[in-house]
TrEMBL record:
Keywords: ATP-binding, Coiled coil, mRNA processing, Nucleotide-binding, Transcription, Transferase. CDD domains: polyA_pol_Mimi (cd20920). Residues 480-618 form the Poly(A) polymerase catalytic subunit domain. Its main location: virion. One of its GO terms (molecular function) is ATP binding. The keyword Transferase applies. This is Poly(A) polymerase catalytic subunit domain-containing protein. It comes from Chlamydomonas eustigma. Residues 20-54 form a coiled coil. It is found in: Virion. GO terms for biological process: mRNA processing; regulation of viral transcription. The keyword Aminoacyl-tRNA synthetase does not apply. Residues 112-167, 642-665 are annotated as: Disordered.
Length: 909
C-alpha cells in the first residue's frame, strides 16, 4: 500500500522558486520567438505583391502565432515575477521558519523564546522539533536569502512583526489553536491565559500560504463572512436568494442551488466510504461528449503514461503527431489497460500536444435535444425483452450523420457485432420514421427543395398582384418614363437596353427578363440634366395619381433615383453634355414603346466588365451579370482593326531606331517615367506598357506613351511634376463614374525660332483610381505592377470614349486598336488554359490588388459639402434640402478653365 509524501510549506516554497525560475526562462524564450516572428512578418510584408498562395498562408500563420506568443510571454512574465511572490508570501514564510527554528508546533507572535510548557514537558517532542529544525536548515537559509529582496530587512529583526501581520490578516481563515498550562488554577494564571494571543499551527500557516500564493484556500472549511463587518452569523433566505448578516443587517445576493442532491453530484456513503452517482441517461451522454473532446477531469496516473511511452519507444514511433487512436488502443490492449479505452482522446492529446477535436456549444445543445426526442420513443419501439437503452456511441454516430457532421463519425464507433448492430438499426429506423412524421419526412424535404423555384415564382406573383405598387401600376409607371425618355431623347442603359438588343438577335437563349419581369425591372437612363429630369418625372407621376412619389440622390455619385410607394422605379445618371453626345446608341422598342434611344451592347460591356475587376463592391450582382457578359460578347463582339503595314503603324509599335525624330523625346520621357515608377506600390500600368508585358515584346520595342493608374493620385502627381518641370501638364476632370481624374504630360519640343511647343500626343497619362483597388496579375521584368488584361481592356475602352468626347479621334482610334491587340494577346495566351487558371497572367481570378478600396457611399461623401437632395412633389423641401441650395454642378474637360459646366436646374426651373 503506497502512501503519498506529505506536503509541507517548505516543499511548496522550494517548488514555487523552481516554478518562478522556469517561467522567467520561458518568458525569455517566448520574447526571442516574438522577435523572430516579427522579422519574418516584416520580410513577407515587403514582398506582399509577389507572394504566392503559400506565402500568404505563411503570413497569416505568422500573424496569428505572433499574437499568441505575445500573450504567452506576458503571462509568463507575470507568473515569474519574484517580487510579487514574496510580497504575498513573506509574512507567512517568516512565521513558519521562525517556528521551525524554535522547534515548536504552535507559534505565538509575542511568546517567549522558550518552548511552550506542554511541548517542553515531552522529551520526544523536543527531540522531534530539534530534528525538524536541523532538517530544514538549508531550506530556511534559501528562504532568508530570497525574502530579503522583498522585505529589505533581516529575518531576525522583523520576524515577530511579519508573523503578527500574517496572523492578523488570516485570523478568520486559519485554524486557531489555544495552548495553556494544564496546571494553572489560580486567577492570575487564568487571566494570563485569557490575555494571551492565539497561536498559529503549521497547518494554519500552510493554508495561509496556499491562500495568499494561489488565491485558493486549502482548508476543508471555508467560513462565509459578511463583506461589511466580517461576522460569520449569516441567515440564508433560499426563496429570495440572499443572505443577511445578523450583526449589521447587510444583505448579499447569492446563487442558490435548489437541486442540491442532483444526479450529477457525487454522494458518499458515510458507512462504507464508497462513492456513487445516480443513473441518468443525459449524464452518460454528456460524459461521451466530454470524453471525445478530452474535457473529462479524470486523473490518469503517471505510471500509465510511462508504460505507454515505453511501448511507443519499442514500436519506434518518433513523431507523436502521427499517433492515431487505433494505434493507441492497440497499445492499451497490449498493456491490458482496457479501462482507459474511453480516455483515449485525452491521452492522445496529452502525448501529442494536439488539441482534441472540439464540438461547438450549439452542436452540443442540438445533440442533447435530439437525444431527448429519442428517449421518449425508445420504449415504444424497443424489443419486448430489451431493457437497456441503445448504445450511446451508436446514437451519437447516427445523430452526427443526420446533421451531416461527418468529421465526427470516427469519434463514435459503431458496434462490432452484426446482429446487435442490425437490431439497433431496426429500432433507430422506427424512431426516426415517427419523428419524421411529426414535421417533414425525407420525401417531403426532397419535394420541397425541388419545388422551391415554383414557390418563389408564386410568392413573386402574389406580391406583384397585391402589394402596392402592383404589376399593373409598375407597367403604367414604366410606360410613362419610357415616353418621357423617347420624347426628350434620353439614353437608356442597363438591363432594358441589353434585353432589347438580345431580343433582336433571335437566338434560342432565354431573354434577360421574362415577360412578367419587364414591367417590374427598374429603368436606367443617362441625362445631361439629371436633377431637372428627376423633378419633371416626379411631377408627372404625381399628376398621374401615383402615391408617395419621391426623388433623391442614390448611392453612386451623380445618380438619382425615383421611387413610387417606396419602390424604386427609375435611376437617372448624370452624363456631361460633350460625353452625352458621344455615347454610341441605337433605336429600338422597349415594352411596346417605340423609338427609344439605348446604348449599344458594346458600350454596355464597359460597365459589365468593370464588375469583374471590382470584387469589393460589385461581385454581389455578378451571378446575374456574368451570363449577360458572355451572351453580349458572343453576339456583339468588339470591332477589330485591320493590321496596317509597317510604314503606317503607329510609332509606339515600331522599334526605337525607326521612330521619327519628333517622337524620340517622348520615348525618352517614357523611359524616365518607367524608371521612376519601378518599385512604387501605388502605381499600376495599363495601355502600351501593359501590352508589351502581355505580348512579350522584344527589348528594342519602346512604348511611345505610358498610362499609369495611381491609388495616391495627389502625391504621385506632385512627384511627376517635380520630375518633369518643363513639360506641359493638362489635368482633366473625372468622367462621371467611368474614369477618374487624370493628368496628361506632353513633351515640350523646341521649334526653329527658339520657342518651345508641345506635341499633340502625351507621353504620360496618370489616372486617379478614385478609391478603387486595381487588379494586377504580376510584374514586368523591371518590377512594375501590370494591371489584369480585363482591366486594361476596360481602361482602353473608357479612355477611347473620353477621347471622342474631347474630339481627340486619333487617340480614340489608338485605344480601340489597343483593345484589339489585348484581345488577340489574350486568345494566344489562353490557347492551352482558361481564365480561371491561377498560374496564367491572363486570369480573372485570384488577383492581387493595389490600393485600399472604398465603398460607393464613402466615395460619394468624399469631399462633399452640399446637402443630400430629396425632392417630393407637392411638398416644400426641408431646410437642409432646399432646392436653391443644392449646388449641382458637374464638369468635363480641363481643370484650367476649359470646362463644360451644367448650371443649377432648380434656379431655372
Amino acid at each position: 500500500m503506497s502512501t503519498s509524501t506529505p506536503r509541507t510549506l517548505d516543499m511548496e516554497h522550494s517548488h514555487a522558486l523552481a516554478r518562478l525560475a522556469k517561467e522567467r526562462k520561458r518568458s525569455r524564450d517566448l520574447e526571442a520567438e516574438v522577435a523572430s516572428l516579427s522579422d519574418r512578418i516584416a520580410e513577407l510584408e515587403r514582398q506582399k505583391l509577389d507572394l504566392s498562395d503559400e506565402g500568404f498562408d505563411e503570413l497569416k500563420r505568422c500573424s496569428s502565432l505572433l499574437h499568441l506568443r505575445r500573450e504567452e510571454a506576458r503571462l509568463s512574465r507575470e507568473q515569474g515575477d519574484e517580487v510579487r511572490y514574496y510580497a504575498k508570501a513573506a509574512g507567512t514564510l517568516f512565521s513558519y521558519y521562525e517556528m521551525v527554528d524554535k522547534g515548536i508546533k504552535h507559534y505565538a507572535p509575542d511568546a517567549p523564546d522558550a518552548p511552550d510548557a506542554s511541548v517542553a514537558s515531552d522529551a520526544s517532542h523536543a527531540s522531534h522539533a530539534s530534528h525538524a529544525s536541523h532538517a530544514s536548515h538549508a531550506s530556511h537559509a534559501s528562504h532568508a536569502s530570497h525574502a530579503s529582496h522583498a522585505s529589505h530587512a533581516s529575518h531576525a529583526s522583523h520576524a515577530s512583526h511579519a508573523s503578527h501581520a500574517s496572523h492578523a490578516n488570516n485570523h478568520n481563515a486559519s485554524h486557531v489553536v489555544l495552548t495553556a498550562s494544564s496546571n494553572s488554577a489560580s486567577a492570575g494564571s487564568i487571566l494570563s491565559y485569557m490575555s494571551r494571543k492565539p497561536s498559529c499551527s503549521a497547518a494554519s500557516l500552510f493554508d495561509s500560504y496556499v491562500h495568499r500564493v494561489n488565491q485558493t484556500c486549502a482548508s476543508s472549511v471555508a467560513p462565509l463572512c459578511c463583506s461589511h463587518c466580517g461576522a460569520t452569523t449569516l441567515s440564508l433566505c433560499t426563496q429570495d436568494g440572499y443572505v443577511c448578516c445578523d450583526a449589521c443587517n447587510t444583505m448579499q445576493y447569492v446563487l442558490v442551488d435548489h437541486e442540491r442532491s442532483s444526479n450529477r453530484d457525487v454522494h458518499r456513503d458515510v458507512a462504507s466510504g464508497n462513492s456513487y452517482i445516480a443513473y441518468k441517461r443525459i449524464n452518460h451522454l454528456n460524459e461521451w461528449i466530454n470524453q471525445v473532446q478530452g474535457k473529462e477531469a479524470t486523473e490518469i496516473p503517471d505510471e500509465v503514461y510511462d508504460l505507454i511511452l515505453l511501448e511507443i519507444k519499442k514500436q519506434k514511433l518518433t513523431n507523436m503527431a502521427t499517433l492515431r487512436k487505433a494505434q493507441l488502443k492497440g497499445i492499451l490492449k497490449k498493456l491490458r489497460l482496457h479501462k482507459y479505452y474511453e480516455h483515449i482522446p485525452h491521452i492522445l492529446s496529452r502525448l501529442s500536444g494536439i488539441p482534441s477535436q472540439l464540438i461547438s456549444p450549439e452542436l452540443e445543445d442540438r445533440l442533447r435535444f435530439m437525444f431527448s426526442q429519442v428517449q421518449v420513443l425508445f420504449y415504444k419501439h424497443a424489443p419486448v425483452k430489451r431493457k437497456n437503452f441503445l448504445s450511446y456511441s451508436y446514437c451519437l454516430h447516427k445523430m452526427m450523420q443526420l446533421l451531416e457532421k461527418d468529421q465526427y463519425l470516427d469519434s463514435f464507433p459503431l458496434l462490432k457485432s452484426r446482429e446487435k448492430l442490425q437490431m439497433q438499426d431496426i429500432t433507430w429506423r422506427k424512431i426516426c420514421d415517427e419523428l419524421e412524421e411529426m414535421l417533414y419526412r425525407e420525401q417531403d424535404e426532397q419535394a420541397l427543395l425541388m419545388d422551391l423555384p415554383n414557390m418563389l415564382r408564386e410568392a413573386t406573383s402574389l406580391r406583384n398582384a397585391r402589394v402596392a405598387p402592383t404589376h399593373s401600376q409598375r407597367r403604367v409607371v414604366l410606360h410613362r418614363i419610357l415616353e418621357y425618355t423617347s420624347r426628350n431623347d434620353r439614353v437608356v442603359f442597363g438591363g432594358h437596353a441589353v434585353h432589347s438588343a438580345l431580343d433582336t438577335v433571335g437566338d434560342d437563349q432565354p431573354p434577360i427578363y421574362a415577360a412578367e419581369e419587364v414591367a417590374v425591372a427598374d429603368l436606367e437612363f443617362y441625362s445631361p440634366e439629371p436633377v431637372a429630369d428627376l423633378v419633371r418625372l416626379c411631377d408627372l407621376l404625381n399628376a398621374d395619381g401615383h402615391k408617395r412619389v419621391q426623388g433623391k440622390e442614390a448611392m453612386h455619385l451623380g445618380t438619382y433615383t425615383i421611387s413610387v410607394e417606396f419602390v424604386r422605379v427609375c435611376d437617372v445618371s448624370h452624363m456631361p453634355e460633350p460625353a452625352y453626345r458621344s455615347i454610341p446608341t441605337r433605336r429600338g422598342c422597349v415594352d411596346g414603346v417605340e423609338n427609344v434611344r439605348m446604348v449599344t451592347p458594346q458600350f454596355a460591356m464597359i460597365d459589365h466588365l468593370r464588375m469583374l475587376c471590382d470584387p469589393f463592391t460589385s461581385y454581389w450582382k455578378l451571378d446575374r451579370m456574368l451570363p449577360r457578359i458572355l451572351r453580349i460578347q458572343r453576339r456583339f463582339p468588339f470591332p477589330t482593326f485591320q493590321q496596317q503595314p509597317a510604314s503606317q503603324q503607329p510609332a509606339s509599335q515600331q522599334p526605337a531606331s525607326q521612330q521619327p525624330a519628333s517622337q524620340q523625346p517622348a520615348s525618352q520621357g517614357v523611359a524616365k517615367v518607367l524608371e521612376w515608377a519601378v518599385g512604387r506600390s501605388t502605381l499600376c500600368a495599363v495601355g502600351e506598357v501593359a501590352l508589351a508585358f502581355y505580348e512579350a515584346a522584344t527589348p528594342d520595342t519602346v512604348p511611345q506613351d505610358a498610362t499609369l493608374v495611381s491609388s495616391a493620385y495627389a502625391d504621385d502627381l506632385a512627384a511627376l511634376r517635380a520630375l518633369f518641370p518643363n513639360d506641359k501638364v493638362i489635368e482633366y476632370h473625372p468622367l462621371v463614374d467611368l474614369l477618374g481624374r487624370r493628368a496628361c504630360f506632353k513633351p515640350a519640343v523646341p521649334r526653329r525660332s527658339g520657342r518651345r511647343s508641345s506635341s499633340s500626343r502625351p507621353f504620360l497619362t496618370l489616372i486617379d483610381a478614385s478609391g478603387r483597388a486595381t487588379p494586377t496579375s504580376g510584374r514586368n521584368a523591371d518590377g512594375l505592377c501590370i494591371a489584369s488584361v480585363t482591366f486594361c481592356i476596360v481602361s482602353a475602352l473608357t479612355i477611347a470614349f473620353a477621347a471622342r468626347a474631347h474630339r481627340h479621334l486619333s487617340m480614340a482610334d489608338a485605344q480601340d486598336r489597343l483593345v484589339d491587340r489585348f484581345s488577340a494577346a489574350r486568345l494566344r495566351g489562353l490557347a492551352d488554359t482558361t481564365v480561371a487558371d491561377i498560374t496564367s497572367p491572363f486570369r480573372d481570378t485570384m488577383l492581387v490588388y493595389v490600393g485600399i478600396p472604398m465603398s460607393e457611399m464613402a466615395r460619394h461623401f468624399q469631399g462633399r459639402s452640399h446637402p443630400w437632395l430629396v425632392y417630393t412633389p407637392g411638398r416644400k423641401c426641408r431646410k437642409d434640402d432646399d432646392d436653391g441650395k443644392h449646388p449641382f454642378e458637374q464638369q468635363i474637360g480641363r481643370c484650367d478653365g476649359s470646362v463644360a459646366r451644367v448650371s443649377d436646374p432648380f434656379k431655372a426651373h
